[in-house]
Write a structure and sequence with these properties.
single chain; 341 residues; Ferritin; 14 helices; 64% helix; globular; binds Phenylacetyl coenzyme A
């Protein structure tokens, strides 16, 4: 039994079932465009339908989506670095092949998301420019180092696990291209989470040294994973509007709680301890009580002062510079094709 195979609560659907439901929901919806675009937008949102690129939309909705989708896309490609770091040092050929496939998937997720952002009228090169200029963000989590092989397991289990909890509801987001991109991404993230869980399970049931390495990785990744969900609801600037527009479906704190509830059970199966002495089952709430992450640390990392921010951005900048000849060659080829066809 791995990762999300464990149901969250008895009698409730698993995360993959939620993705399947979102897929059916998308297939079943078809709205007629109305003569009044504002009324049409409001009606589609109220009816839980999809806004498509051809539809009129409030400028703040468009800009807010670009902000979130771009940040998400940047996270996927910057997120290739911490695990990419271990491709050449994976402990076996099988592990190396799996990790390669996983890191490659993240590049694919970046591609789907940049493509979704482009439907809102912004160019991918411009989004890249904004990232490199420090004007757009990427997830705080990728500014932490992967110190041992067990970190690859912890990233898969906890970081991808948190990503799934955050992203499954985005399959039901009101903007069609983003929602559709998320369906495929969530299916792939589910594989990623299981591979991380399996790495940790192997280490946790191995030698005492391997188990200690797995525990150390979980100790270091637990709180940064909780912080991925963003600031507490009381300090979240975008949540109210995003939820009214059905971009976000749950608040940061609700998703964080869902992640804790799911992960406590999984840690039990692994035989590893989550590094929170405050974890306890609250019968009245029907949820686990837990210690909040350090939000000052989250904002320090978001502002650029995390352990690896500079390294991550320097690597990204170098990749952009080194790729100049590829972009130039592709443009020259496209021009040549235009002349000859
Ligand atoms: N890091 O008002 P809110 C992955 C910013 S998963 C950095 O609550 P919102 C998979 C926020 O942007 C990771 N910044 O914001 C993978 C805002 O600043 P702004 C990516 C953060 O948007 C695994 C300010 O704080 N997932 O990549 C963070 O309503 C392994 C106030 O916050 C997504 O992007 C943070 N953790 O809620 C890949 C999911 N939290 O923009 C490779 C989609 C908050 O005004 C390997 N995004 N901020 O300057 C979302 O669901 C939302 O955007 C949240 C934030 C929940 C991240």
């Amino acid at each position: 039994m791995y990762g999300n195979d464990i149901p969250e609560q008895p009698g409730t659907a698993g995360l993959l079932d939620e993705v399947a439901a979102a897929e059916r929901d998308l297939a079943g919806r078809d709205h007629d465009a109305s003569a009044d675009p504002t009324a049409y937008f409001d009606a589609v949102i109220a009816a839980d339908g999809k806004i498509e690129p051809r539809d009129e939309m409030p400028e703040a909705y468009r800009k807010g989506l670009i902000r979130q989708i771009a940040q998400h896309a940047h996270s996927e490609i910057i997120g290739m670095q911490p695990e990419g770091n271990w491709i050449s040092r994976a402990p076996s050929l099988k592990r190396k092949a799996i990790l390669l496939a996983k890191v490659q998937d993240e590049a694919g997720h970046g591609l789907y998301l940049y493509a979704a952002a482009e439907t809102l009228g912004i160019d991918r090169a411009e989004l890249y420019r904004l990232l490199l200029a420090g004007k757009q963000k990427y997830s705080s989590i990728f500014n932490y180092p992967t110190l041992t092989w067990a970190d690859v397991g912890a990233v898969g289990w906890l970081v991808d696990g948190a990503a799934i909890v955050n992203q499954v509801p985005l399959c039901r987001c009101s903007y069609g291209p983003y929602a559709r991109a998320m369906i495929r991404i969530c299916k792939e993230e589910s594989f990623h989470q299981r591979q991380g869980y399996e790495i940790l399970y192997t280490l946790a049931t191995g030698t005492p040294e391997q188990k200690a390495m797995a525990q150390d990785a979980v100790d270091r990744w637990w709180y940064p994973s909780l912080a991925m969900f963003g600031p507490p609801d009381t300090d979240s600037t975008h949540s109210a509007q995003s939820m009214a527009w059905k971009i976000k479906r749950f608040s940061n704190d609700d998703l964080r709680q869902k992640f804790v509830d799911m992960t406590v059970q999984q840690a039990g199966v692994l035989g590893l301890v989550l590094p929170d002495p405050g974890l306890s089952w609250n019968e009245e709430r029907g949820h686990w009580d837990y210690t909040q992450p350090d939000y000052d640390e989250l904002f320090t990392v978001i502002k650029g002062d995390g352990p690896c921010n500079r390294e991550r951005m320097a690597h990204r900048q170098a990749a952009w510079d080194d790729g100049a000849w590829v972009r130039e060659a592709a443009m020259a080829y496209a021009e040549k094709k235009k002349v000859t066809t």
